[in-house]
Amino acid sequence: MALGYCAVIDLHDELSRLSRAWIAERDAARVRYAEERTNTTLAERVEARIALRNLSLDEALPAPGERVLLWFRPERGTNLRDLRLGPGDPVLLWRTQPDEPGAVHGVLARRSPDRVGVMISDDSRDDLWDAGWRLDREAPEVTFARGRDALQAAAAAPPKSVDWQRLNLLFGLSAPPRNQHPVPVEEWFDEGLEDDQREAVRRALGLDLSLVLGPPGTGKTRTLAELVRQSVARGERVLVTAASHTAVDNLAERLVRAGVKLVRIGHPARVSPEMEEHTLDSLLERSDAAGLARGWIREAEALRQKLRQREKRKATTWAERREVMGEINGFYASANGRRATRSGGSSTGPR
What we know:
This protein is of the alpha+beta class. The chain is built from 10 helices and 6 strands, in the order ααββββββαααααααα. β1 (about 50-65) and β2 (about 65-75) form a beta hairpin. α9 (about 290-310) packs antiparallel against α10 (about 320-345). The protein is elongated, with a radius of gyration of 25 Å. It starts with 10 loop residues before the first helix and ends in an 8-residue tail after the last helix.
């Protein structure tokens, strides 16, 4: 007599377990980065090429998604080519202590031979122009927050709903329906597909869950591109996700070259340069309202530069400074209001 064992898994319990593991990983990352700053000196971290010191703000530019791109110039003699930080890495800007209230959280966006670009949420703080900023790498708080929110949303899915059924399918608690009759394809967009690639597309079009397996270089991305194009041709909306931004960009770039209209979701600093113009933020920034907002921010920064020059010459009074700062804040308020209007929401929403 054959005996079998089947473990009974409760979906809620599994999601709770994943949530606890996710929070534990977040806490461990926070501790790791905090200990890195506590147990080593800034000079040691600079020597290890994971930090920068004595940064001076060189330029502030409006960036997609109600953000500001800050271009910092390091002290003379700093070699940015060997910096072990790249675009998309979360960073922390601070002046006295990393845990000070005025520390600024941002994302390293660009790097040139003599400057680093850090993208932050729109901020009209005047002290950003003061010299002496330090830069350290930071835990990916946004990633952890979004993962937590996704797990909470999954746990809140009503029983017997479509989302609940899909969750059971993904966790292996229910068997996927088997479609023995692949969906016929009348016309192929990519005529160069092999027979097994075409079969994979036909089967995937008729299944809720389909796995396309193969070693690197066997054409999986090409097959997925055809699957997306066939789905779009059928009037479907397609969401493409992957474990990395690079993987999403590889498929997205292939689709764009094929003439597929798409919107790339993601932080502009983490998207490949080729896909920047297709990001949601970039599309919104092309609106007339966004153009006005950028103009107001430039005027605000020009006023700030003039004020700083006059302050260096000690040619301004406290009353004059207050008046100019009022104008600067007014420009920023107008820009934020205009950008909130064209995006249909509040400028204080999640970044």
